[in-house]
Amino acid sequence: MFEASDALLLARIQFAFTVSFHFIFPAFSIGLASYLAVLEGLWLKTGKQVYLDLFKYWLKIFAMAFAMGVVSGIVMSYQFGTNWSVFSDKAGSVIGPLMAYEVLTAFFLEAGFLGVMLFGMNKVGKKLHFTATLMVAVGTFISAFWILSANSWMQTPTGYEIGANGQFLPGESWFDIVFNPSFPYRLVHTVIAAYLTTAFVVGGVGAWHLLKDKTNQHARKMFSMAMWMAALVAPVQIFAGDMHGLNTLEHQPTKVMAMEGHYESHSDGAPFYLFGIPNDKTQKLDYAVGIPKLSSLILKHDLDAPLAGLDTVPDADQPPVFPVFWAFRIMVAIGTCMMLLGFWSLFARWRGTIYDWPLLHRAAIVMGPSGFVAVIAGWVTTEVGRQPFTVYGLLRTAQSASPLDAPAVAASLLAFVLVYFAVFGAGVWYILKLMQKPPHTGEKGVKSTEKGPVRAAGITPGPSQNPGDPSVLPEDHKEATDGR
């Protein structure tokens, strides 16, 4: 069935499929971990029950999203050895340590404090539990730090040496590898995107419950906090994206040509194309609709600044323009809508109708999943725009794949599709069911079993009938065993 297929294409589809599934969970959990830290901090500072209730409400959702993010990420690591073994051999001396640093810092930090965060609110002091929540939030950021550093090195490789066998080896300073030219911009842009993704999910859930009951104080609080985030951070994200684009123009100009749809060079100001159908065969943008000279103004801050096009790049070094061109526009359009919704909420807040404007709430519900679409579109722009290289300008994707036959890659791809949609589809369905329930006073948070965690060895003691046995808890301490 797949003997006539291209093994390289199937390997690329498989990695794109798994990374797209994986990326939506960290994009949510990074922002949600910080949101939980804010909620718990506000509860400790103000003593208001609403913050504690919202903390427990979103803690259950975070636990599910975090678990699915970890599981889906493990699969990607295996693909480096199965489908991309040549890349692992060539770049493993640089990429391997960066990924190991993630494990040694972020994973260890999260593993040490996640259990306390999920189950320890009634077992440790308030300050220690808040510390655990902060450490989990910091751990998610550190994880993003190392992964984005590794990816950014593949985009803008620096600090390396080429060994006798053609391998990329670390140079004199790891600082040049970790803090490569595109890394600071990509880190800021991606982390802010994660925060906005979470904000719009929280805002969408809050708006959903406000439409059902506009007097729900918990829904009011979460919607208000989310809209503040949208109004204040979305404009910052647009600025960060612009700075990231200017950095990309400097170090990866071919990617920017594909993003802009510039097949032809422009000597006296390049237009910004709003719409068009890229045609790689004819090297033209069909049915183009653009604003004259706007691209030069955005990229060079000069209406008449010349911009080179793909006609200056050999065909073999050009990325596929269609997905890059449209993914970039989807990302920009969603970012603009986020900012506009944030400004709309400010207007509603000024009028005193932020909790009584159904049209605003419906718009927030529609925008609820928009962050996930935006981060996937941004990832497509970044990764497809880097093609045909895995290490930009140095190692081609065609030279990075394992010597596998197409049927072998196709079999694992089909298995991933079936398993992912079954397992993660069920997980997403459960998260949506949790979101469907309105937050209320006395949220229980993550539940544990009555007997506590399952023991890996030894005998699990049963409940004693002796009233003096410490395993028999008095009535006012039962909430310590049922997770409340």
TrEMBL record:
GO terms for biological process: aerobic electron transport chain. The chain crosses the membrane at residues 15-36, 57-78, 98-121, 128-148, 187-211, 223-240, 324-347, 359-380, 409-432. Keywords: Cell membrane, Electron transport, Heme, Iron, Membrane, Metal-binding, Transmembrane, Transmembrane helix, Transport. It is found in: Cell inner membrane; Cell membrane. InterPro entries: Cyt-d_ubiquinol_oxidase_su_1 (IPR002585). One of its GO terms (molecular function) is oxidoreductase activity, acting on diphenols and related substances as donors, oxygen as acceptor. It is a multi-pass membrane protein. GO terms for cellular component: cytochrome complex; plasma membrane. Residues 440-484 are annotated as: Disordered. Residues 440-453, 474-484 have a biased composition (Basic and acidic residues). The keyword Thylakoid does not apply. Belongs to the cytochrome ubiquinol oxidase subunit 1 family. This is Cytochrome ubiquinol oxidase subunit I. It comes from Aurantiacibacter xanthus.
